[in-house]
Amino acid sequence: MNRRSLLKTLGSAAGFAAYARAFNGRAWAQAAPSQAPSGVPAAPAAPAGPFTLPALPYAYDALEPTIDAETMHLHHDKHHQAYVNNLNAAVANYPQLASRSVDDLIANLNSLPDEVRTAIRNQGGGHANHSFWWMILSASGGVEPKADLAKAIDAQFGSYAQFQAAFTKTAAGLFGSGWTWLTLAPGGKLQIETSPNQDSPLTAGRTPLLALDLWEHSYYLKYQNRRAEYVAAWYKVINWDYVSGLYAKAKA
Ligand code: MN3
Predict the structure, then answer these.
(1) Which domain range does residue 243 map to?
(2) How far apart are alpha carbons 84 and 54 in whole angstroms?
(3) Is the pTM of this model over 0.90?
């Protein structure tokens, strides 16, 4: 749109909408260089929304040495971003889905159109699980469960140490890519469970309280094939203050 036709059409709402479209198109083009700064070719353009990558709630190196900054960059900026992009692509033609939260989509997979259910299960699951993952990690979140969650863990597993042993055993038993979770079932019982791929306990109606990412991308740079070492170290960076808060909220 040139300046003259712009001036001519700005008087109407339709004209303003056309101007807004033209401006947004130009801004988008400027924001997407053909080469990323690192020299890696840019990925094909993905829809800009409705889902967006949440910022990390701490610095990329905040979890060093347990989880290294390079892993955090790749995991957050590349892997999580890809789930967001692919989820946006999946809902691009479904405006009725775009207005729902990703947790709502994952908790109600049966409500989704057949054509996009698998894509949302995988890509939406990846977005939901990783959004959760960043929040349950911290270098300063306390070393043990707090308050009512501490009592519930003691009551159900015997002690925090026994809970850790059970969680580690379940994690070690997961074959392939997936997650290990501490969840709260509708009856109020704590549960240690695994999910394959990017499946979420939300789909089964349980509330995630704690998650352990067991995809190789979450640890391979630093730990290589030593997955047990990664799992053992991960307990040092659990944000128990946050997790205990989730339990209190879910019980309320
Ligand atoms: Mn991951």
Answers:
(1) 147-251
(2) 10
(3) no
